[in-house]
Amino acid sequence: MKIEILKDPKTMGQAAGEVAAKAIKASLAKKGFANIILATGTSQFETLSRLVDEPGIDWSKVTLFHLDEYLGLPITHGASFRKYLLERFINVVNPSLKQAHLIDGEADAATECARLGALIQAHPIDVALVGIGENGHLAFNDPPADFETEEPYIVVNLDEACRKQQFSEGWFDSMEAVPKQAISMSIRQIMKSAKIICSVPDERKAEAVRNSLNEAVSPEYPASILQQHLDCELFLDEGAAELLEKSFLEKYNLKVH
């Protein structure tokens, strides 16, 4: 794993977006196409902004998947991740995007998981953009995460910490309004991505970052699995990195850029 610490969320997101753009271009040059995963949420604002501004990407050869969506939430709701991607990415790069396989949280969950599973198995992922939740989750795989399932998409129960994060970030008017279930890409499916770029801003993620990097790989710390990926780049801002011990920083020669 390669780790970079930047001074603030904007600088961090710009750096992550630049690396993502470079990786997508490399896949296009090598294979003539690219299959990507995009994360959503406040942690991805700057990363996606930088990515869509990158010149020279032939989006007509890019196929998009995303990580998760709430069950039962209409696409018109402000917290819908489909709505998020349409507004912040798809409609910006369109009409050139080849395909966008979005999770329909209003469909029958089992049928939707099977549909998306077949699609992503036919489109091996070249570049995945992900984040880490306050509870250490990866996508909506809350602790203890399922590290064993080979199903690409699964129905998950959202724990209280996850739901509190969604409420505190302003996506919902009340805790009661936050859905209790979602469709999520599984841990093993995320790990099948050729390259993973993880963006994590803000001091409220600092404990999750420390656990993900310092603790042994465990379902209790879902994002810790990224330690085992062969090509993962983790971008942090100063706040997200504030609990990393001096010995850890020295071991990896980490400094704020």
What is the typical, i.e. mean, pLDDT? 94
Q: What is the strand tally? A: 10
Which regions have little confidence, pLDDT < 50, spanning 5+ residues?
none
Biggest sheet statistics: 7 strands, parallel
Task: Produce the secondary structure layout.
Layout: E1 2-6, H1 9-31, E2 34-38, H2 45-53, E3 62-66, E4 68-70, H3 81-93, E5 99-101, H4 109-121, E6 127-130, E7 153-157, H5 160-168, E8 181-185, H6 187-191, E9 195-200, H7 206-214, E10 232-237, H8 246-251
Parallel strand pairs: 1-10, 2-3, 2-6, 3-5, 6-9, 9-10
Antiparallel strand pairs: 4-8, 7-8
Helix pairs in contact: 1-2, 2-3
Please describe what this structure looks like:
By secondary structure, the protein is α/β, with parallel strands linked by helices. The chain is built from eight helices and ten strands. The strands form two sheets. The chain has a seven-stranded parallel sheet, sandwiched between helices. Helix 1 packs across helix 2 and helix 2 runs parallel beside helix 3. The longest helix has 23 residues. The radius of gyration is 17 Å and the shape is globular. The mean pLDDT is 94.
Observed structural traits:
18% strand, single chain, 8 helices, 257 residues, 3-stranded antiparallel beta sheet, alpha/beta, 34% helix, globular, 7-stranded parallel beta sheet
How is this structure best summarized?
With 257 residues, this protein is of the alpha/beta class.
